[in-house]
Design a protein that fits this description.
This protein is α+β, with helices and mostly antiparallel strands and 202 residues long. The protein has two domains: 108 residues, Roll (Archaeosine Trna-guanine Transglycosylase, Chain: A, domain 4); 71 residues, LON domain-like fold (Orthogonal Bundle). The protein contains six helices and seven strands; from the N terminus they run E-E-H-E-E-E-E-E-H-H-H-H-H. Strands 1-3-5-6-7 form a five-stranded mixed β-barrel. A hairpin with an 8-residue loop joins strand 3 and strand 4. The relative contact order is 0.17. The N terminus is likely disordered. This is Peptidase S16. It holds the Pfam family LON_substr_bdg. InterPro entries: Lon_prtase_N, Lon_prtase_N_sf, PUA-like_sf.
């Protein structure tokens, strides 16, 4: 048996945030710090993405924050100028990655050498998690109109179902990061199911 080689490292700018971006999710940001304006220009010029990582220590603004090692690649899909004059961007979550090493530029922009994870293969939702499909339908109806036209087949994919639930349920940031890091989509569904009783009204 031949050992599987690791993916080559890819260098990209990192954007630490106080929230988790999941594959397939949409991210809206207002950009005002020069370092992140540079990031947007770089991505627009080269057609590349940037890495979104949960902040473990620090803040989104100011000194470089300590990011989680596992994050999600974001690709900019739209730009706009807000009423306040700030640049707004919309980005789409893609593949997950692990940061092998990172460094901060003089202006505080983090750059990382990352190993991109392969996308999770489609996997049917086991019958014991059918309730999660119903819960997601209700959440989307009230909270996420962008998913209302999702095909029925999406709800039957364990990965899509788990990431959408992790995005919409009121999990704390640490729990969201845990859901992002799990390598098994069915295990993700099992942990989400076990968390659900916490959100049920007495």
């Amino acid at each position: 048996m031949v050992a599987q080689s690791q993916s080559p490292l890819v260098e990209m700018p990192l954007f630490p945030l106080a929230s988790v971006l999941f594959p397939g999710s949409q991210l809206q940001l207002r950009i005002f710090e020069p370092r992140y304006l540079d990031l947007v220009r770089e991505c627009a010029r080269h057609g590349t993405g940037f890495g979104v990582c949960l902040i473990l220590e620090g803040k989104e603004v100011g000194e470089p924050a300590l990011p989680a090692a596992i994050g999600t690649i974001a690709r900019i899909s739209d730009f706009h100028r807000g009423d306040d004059g700030l640049l707004g961007i919309v980005a789409e979550g893609g593949s997950r990655f692990r940061v092998a090493r990172s460094r901060a530029r003089v202006d505080g922009l983090l750059r990382g050498d990352v190993e991109v994870w392969p996308d999770e293969p489609e996997q049917p939702v086991p019958v014991e998690f059918a309730l999660l499909q119903t819960i997601l339908e209700r959440l989307i109806e009230t909270m996420a109109p962008q998913w209302r036209d999702a095909p029925r087949s999406a709800y039957d994919d364990s990965s899509w179902l788990g990431f959408r639930l992790a995005e919409l349920l009121p999990l704390d940031a640490g729990e969201q990061q845990r859901m992002l890091e799990l390598p098994d989509p069915v295990q993700r569904l099992a942990e989400l199911r076990d968390i659900l009783p916490r959100f049920q009204k007495p």
